[in-house]
Amino acid sequence: MPKVWLRQRWETFLPAVADVGNGQEERLKRLCEEELAAWRARPKMSASSLRVPLTDTRNEIKKIPLTEHNSWLNPRTGKREHLGLKYLNVSEEEWAAMNAPSEAKLQQRFEDVQLVKDHEGLVATATTLLQSKQWEEIVVALAVLTGRRLSEVLKSGMVVWETPYTVVFSGQLKRRDKILDPYEIPTLCEARLVVEAWERLRTIKECSEMEGREISTRLGPVVSQAADTWFSAYVPPRSGRASLYTHLFRTIYARIALLYFAPETIVDIKYMSRIQGHYWVVEATGKQKDDYMATLHYNDYRIADGEGHIDGRQGIKLGLPGVSVLKVFEQKEKQNMAPRKKSTSTEVMTSEANKTGYSMMRPKQTTRVLLNQEKQRLDVKSDDELLLALLKRSRAYDALSQDGDGVGPMMEFISEVRDGHDDPVAYLRSLVIRDANFRHGLEKRNAGLDYRSMRLSDLEKYKTEPAAQERFRRAVAAIMTYNEAQEEPLKRWFINPNTVRELVGGRYPAVKAYLDTHQSELDAHHEQYALKAAYNRKPIAIKEMVQISEPAQVAQSVAVDEEEMFKAAAEDQE
Fold this sequence. Notes:
- α7 (119-129) crosses α8.
- The protein is globular and about 95 Å long.
- The protein is built from 26 helices and eleven strands.
- Residues 280-286, 340-356 and 553-574 have low confidence and may be disordered.
- The protein has a three-stranded antiparallel β-sheet with strand order 4-5-8.
- It is mostly helical.
- The chain folds into five domains: 4-90, no CATH class; 106-335, hpI Integrase, Chain A; 369-393, no CATH class; 403-445; 452-553, no CATH class.
- Helices cover 55% and strands 7% of the residues.
C-alpha cells in the first residue's frame, strides 16, 4: 500500500498527467520534474528510498488508457507507453543507486565471506534438475547454471545457443522501462541442455501475463523452498535472511563461471560485471558503462579448493573441447597470446661473430646434473645430440596432445595419475585389460540371449551394449508407429536422443550413436510427415502418449504360461 503522503499527491498529479497530450510534452516534462523535486525535498528522502514512490507512481501511470495523443513508442521496449513514463524517470546512475543495497549491508558482506566447498557437486545437482518435471526445480537449476533472475527465467528472458558452453541472453530488465541489449553469457553445463530446459519450462509454467512483482510474490516462495531443499548443503547461509535463490543466481554462478571460463588476464570484477549484466548505456554517447558497484554487492562468496582455502584460479576449463572465451574478451585474449618479439641475445650468439658455429648455453649446476643423467639414459654422446633428442620428444608430445582422436585427453589423464603411480602407463594398461576382461565376461555370460524376445522390464536389467541397442530400437519403432497412426500433425513426435531417452533411458552419447547409424531412415520418416524438433514442445510427456508394445514372442509365452498355470491348478484340485 503506497504511503499516505504519496496518495495525497496522486490526487492532483495523476489527473494532470492524464490530461496532457502530444502537443503539451514540455508542460508534461515540467510537471514530472516538479513532482520529482517535491519528493526529493521531503525529510529523510535518500536515493534508495526514492525507488518505492517512483515505481508505485509509474505503475499508476501505466493504468491510464493509451491514445494516439498521450503515448509514444519506446525504442528500447518496442511498445507504446504513456508519455508520463518518459518524463517521470531518473538517470541510469540513479536507478543503479536506488537498486543497490545499503552501504552498511555492503560492509557486512565484505566482512562475512563464505566458502563454497563442492562446486562440482553443486553444478552436477543443477544439471540433473534440468530434467525435472517440477517447474520450480527447473527454475532453480537455470539460476545456478546461467545466473538469471526469477522473472527473467519465467517470463522476460530468452536464451539462444551460441557455442557448446555459451548462450546469447536477452530480456534482462535493468530498469522497469529499459531492456539491455542481448549479450553472451557462459553456461556451467552444456548450453544445449540449458536451452532445452528453458524451452520446456515455458510449456510447463505459463507466466507471460504475469507482472514481475506478481511473479516474485506468488512464485518466489515456492522457488526459494526448492533452492533451500537442493542447495543448502552446498551453499553456506549468508548473514541475515536473504533468499538462497539470490545467492545462487548472482554470486555463486558468477564465481563458478569465473573459475571455469574467465581468462587469467581479465580482472574478476570485470568478468563478473559483464556476465551479470551490470552495466548501462549512456544515452548521450550510446556507449556502455560498467556498474562495478553493483557487482561488489554480490561478492561475498568464494570457491574453495580441495584443502578448504580460497581457489583463486581462473579459466581452468579453457582449452577443453568446446570451451571458448566470451567474444567480448576474445580480442583481448588474442592480443595477450600473440607471439612477442624475441630477445636478440640468441641472434647475437649465433651471428657471424661466433666463428665456432656453437651457441653458449649455461645451465645451472643442478640442471647440468639432470642433463648428464638424461644423456646416459638416452645413450647420446654430446650436449647437442641430447638437445636434439629432447626437442624431437617435445614436439612428438605436442603433436599427440593436439591430436583430435582423443589422444590429447589421454595424455592429460596420464599426467594426472603420474603422481599417484610409479608407472602410470602400466596402471593405464591394467585398467584397459580389466575393462576388457569385464566386458568379455559379461558377453560370455549373456551369450545366446535373445534380447528381441525379452520383456522391456527384463531388458532393462542387462547393461550390455546389445541390450541397450534393442531398447533404442523399440523406442524408435514405437514412435514411428505412433506417428503413423496420428491424423493431427501436432500430435506427432520428432525422433531425437531426448525422445528416445525419455522412453527407455540410456546415456546420451549411446543413444545419439545409435540414431546416427539409422539417420537415413529417420530422415525419411521426418520428411514423410514434415516433422521438426519444435513438434516436441508439448505440455505432456512422450511416455504418456507413446507406448512400447512387448514382442509377439513375449505375448505368446505369457499365454502359454497362463495355460500351464490353469492346468496345474486343475490338477491340484483333483
